[in-house]
Description:
Layout: H1 2-18, H2 24-45, H3 48-76, E1 120-122, E2 133-136, E3 148-149
Amino acid sequence: MIKTQNAKRTTHNALRTTKHAFTLIELMLVVVILGALAAMIVPRMAGRSQQAKISIAKADIMSNIPSALDLYELDNGAYPSTEQGLDALLSKPAGSPQPNNWNGPYLKKKPIDPWGSEYQYRYPSQHQRLDYDLYSFGPDQVKSDDDVTNWE
């Protein structure tokens, strides 16, 4: 029994001496490599977030919301008025024009642009060849050159 205990101690001591730890130089080298990689990758990704948000807004304005508006118009014979707005796609609106054949909801949730604001809707359109205006004020949330619209 005493030999077994001594053998365990010897094995334990041998394991303790063979452990390997990272040196400070090795850790610093890893940090420098990670820093160099970050310096090369981060500038390339910096503008992508804004581009992705603009792409999402364009998809909503050119496809997703217009599909719901077209279904609404097909059921009711007219698009919702400016006053009824895009909320008419979620619940039956009051006011004129009265949607007698409302068969919604036409959207699952309220359409919000990627910057956290509601999409802007106007019927009838103030632009030729369009039934309605649909737009987002974009990142600055004021009327400017970065607006995402369905007429440009």
